[in-house]
Amino acid sequence: MPHLQINDLSCSYGNLKVLNGVNLTLQQGQVVSLIGGSGSGKSTLLRVIMGLTHPDTGSIDVAEQSIDYTSAQSIRKAREQIAIVFQQYNLFHNMSVLDNVMVTPVKVQKRAERQVREEALALLAKVGLQAKSDVYPSELSGGQQQRVAISRALALHPKILLLDEVTSALDPELVGEVLDTVRQLAKDGMTMLLVSHEMHFVREVSDVVAMMDKGQIVEMGSPDQIFNNPQHPRTQDFMRKIAWH
Amino acid sequence: MLTLTQQLTNLMGAFTLTFFLQAAWNTLALAMMGCSIGLVMGFLIACVRRTRTRLLLPLRALLIVLVELMRRIPFLVTLFLTMFTLQGVGVDLSFFTIALIAVCLISTAYLAEIFRTGFESVPQAQIEAAQTLNFSQSQLIFLVMLPQAWKVVLPPAFSFMVSFIKDTALASQLGVVELTFAGKILITRGYSSFLIYGLILLVYFAMSYPLSRLGARLERRLGQPTAKPSASFQPPAALTAERLS
After folding, report:
1. A86 inside domain
2. How close is the nearest chain A Cα to the Cα of B219, in Å?
């Protein structure tokens, strides 16, 4: 049973067609990466999956249940299984690190606080931030905030994790620590849909790579196929342009 | 004319003192109740204005019109409008109650705008993060938006409320015997204007000063959600006690 299925999805902002018939399937435990230039629709696709933007046509099935975008209840149900980590971390400024991780399981999922606290501390320890649990996000570096954001997402026990350019806003020396965390998640078998510009990382960690351009997936295949033997002219163009060090 | 001391002695006579204190109490009651109700209703109006359902559109439109009207009409006109509307409808209320209703309408309108500005100051990214975590509307407002809105809401809110205490003097035009009106009555009885208005100044000051102090204190506590002294701060070695002594 595919964890996530996107069927012929289209979405426009006014006159601009941002997504133009996207088809994608995500199986359990798979890591699928979306690559492509700015404006290709990668982030919009993630936003639509999370219900932040509504599509015009097409559908998204989460565990074979189609999301009904006119029903708040349906969107809520989909969000119970998917978690997203944003490019700008989006930690709650008014809460400490531990509260950020704990607030959703305790207040939204209504789980017992003591157990959630233990789990939250364990998650923070896993990303090396247990000592910072009483600190506020504004006192952390970008890399630290992003790791907290990942912990916050994992505290929900999501079936699918969406990662929207999670290292793009970070200083170069902080990128590694976040990638290590994502690498570990992939090893642990988390189903992930990843949007990233870190090509080496995408190549290393993905099962499937999809190249997007102008709101469509123009080419999709294994990392080896996409990076070493791109078929579509846009993919070839993209591979030529990105700097390989 | 009696000397100042003689006047003061007369003023402290039971009847005059009671009269004066009763008037001061009217002012205080109008201001306190007006501000409290204004805060609660203003907050609720700001919450309603955030909704998007078509169902509530007439309510939202009505609230917007009311708020904009109340903020653009002179307070005195609002007071008279309230009185003539209520009397025209045939409701028999005391002048104080009519003034109280008008005062609540005015403070609600101003505070609703202040809360709305506060809510709009919260970055959209914070709201989206809460939405993707399946926060309900009230969880979003109380756990994320309000704590972050305080620093934008508190200064103008307290500034308005302190200033509003003075505006309750207009209720005298409806016949409510509040502080300023009492002053005028006492002067017609022969007390010196300097003495009476001097006393009134002191009483107004005594009412508004604690309010501004409260505002300052709340701003420090609630208005800085992200500020927390870092426990790990180490002063530079050059400033340690041994070197200074």
Report:
1. no
2. 14
Q: Which residues of A touch B139 (CB under 8 A)?
A: 107-108
Shared domain check, A135 and A15: no
Of B107, B70, B77, B95, which is closest to residue B174 (Cα–Cα)? B95
Residue B225: per-residue pLDDT: 56
- Tell me how many domains chain A contains: 2
Q: What are phi and psi of A70, to 5 degrees?
A: -90, -5
Domain that includes residue B143, residue range: 10-221
Confidence of residue A38 (pLDDT cuts 50, 70, 90): confident
A137 falls within a domain: yes
Domain hosting residue A230, numbered range: 1-81+160-245
Is the Cβ–Cβ distance between A124 and A154 less than 8 Å?
A: no
Query: Which residue, among A70, A94, A108, A162, would best test binding to B if mutated, counting the most B CBs under 10 Å from its CB?
Result: A94
- Specify if B157 maps to a domain: yes
DSSP element (H, E) containing A206: none
Tally the domains of chain B: 1
Same domain, A14 and A120: no
- Residues in B touching A103 (Cβ below 8 Å): 133, 143
**CB contact B147 to A (< 8 Å):** yes
Structural domain includes residue B5: no
What distance in Å separates the CA atoms of residue A222 and residue A225, rounded to the nearest whole number? 5
* Model confidence, pTM: 0.87
Report, as ranges of residue numbers, the positions in chain B whose pLDDT lies below 50.
227-245
The minimal CB distance from A90 to the residues B129, B225, B228 is found for B129
The DSSP output letter for B223 is S
